[in-house]
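Subgroup meeting minutes
Present: P.N., E.W., G.H.
Scribe: E.W.

1. P.N. recapped why we're keeping a running log of single-chain structure predictions: easier to compare across weeks, and new members can see raw inputs and outputs side by side.
2. G.H. added today's entry (121 aa).
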Amino acid sequence: MLSARGAPAGILNLVVNGDIILVLDTRIYDEYADVLRREKFAFPKNAVDEILAFIQREGLLVTPSPASCMLPDPGDLPFAEAALHTRVPVVTGNARHFRGSGADVITPAEFLEKHRLDYRL
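Output recorded in log:
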């Protein structure tokens, strides 16, 4: 949501269009809600509410098993656990945060290229 261009925006568009499904657990949802509501971003409240409602309605909510890996940022553990549980990649620009997790980790651009998804706006 920070930029209308680039691979992350392309992935958000694919999610909103129903071309891909977000996998999340309650911790990930809470993280999304917290980040989207931060004052520094100043996203319109109605837009945040709409996106969060969409995520609740269209996302795949899972209850992953705990992973035994140690990550530099413990806040990243829910993402690794959800990815391992569903065997889908973590799509992030911070791949180094997930080293040793056992999860497949790719950048947004790699994800779009790998799946040959068009994200041009």
